[in-house]
Amino acid sequence: MSQTKPEIDPPMGPAPSELVIDDLEVGSGEEAKPGATVEVHYLGVDYETGEEFDSSWSRGQTITFPLSGLIAGWQEGIPGMKVGGRRTLACPPHLAYGPSGGGHPLSGKTLLFVIDLVGIR
């Protein structure tokens, strides 16, 4: 498993209109199921600017949460991933924080995440 904060190159081309899943590293551990509680390290950037908006790496610790409490892109994009894996998720607004003007600072934005699946609880 990667133990270092990922680097993200700014994507080329237009933002996707649907969820894009790309395994950078396939894990060999237990597989995440829909609705599981997962422990992850992650980095999130704005798809268009490449600007980081959130990172568990910056806080120096993983986070653990039930998938059911997360944005739709994570609910759809993490199941099937195996512990030890690293995956990118490109989440268009309807699978992230909704359309522009939705009240969240990231509303209307396509978000790109790199997620390391550390464990399943």
From TrEMBL:
A Pfam short name: FKBP_C
InterPro entries the record matches: PPIase_dom_sf (IPR046357), PPIase_FKBP_dom (IPR001179)
**Could you say which enzyme class this protein belongs to?**
isomerase
Instruction: Tell me the first and last residues of the signal peptide.
Output: none
Q: Does the keyword Isomerase apply?
A: yes
User: Does the keyword Isomerase belong to this entry?
Assistant: yes
The protein's UniProt keywords, in alphabetical order, are: Isomerase, Rotamase
The entry lists its GO molecular-function terms as: peptidyl-prolyl cis-trans isomerase activity
Q: What is its EC number?
A: 5.2.1.8
Q: Where is the PPIase FKBP-type domain?
A: 35-121
Q: Which domain of life is it from?
A: Bacteria
> What is the reaction catalyzed?
[protein]-peptidylproline (omega=180) = [protein]-peptidylproline (omega=0)
Q: What family is it from?
A: Belongs to the FKBP-type PPIase family.
Tell me what this protein is called.
Answer: Peptidyl-prolyl cis-trans isomerase
Recall the taxonomic lineage recorded for the source organism. Bacteria, Bacillati, Actinomycetota, Actinomycetes, Micrococcales
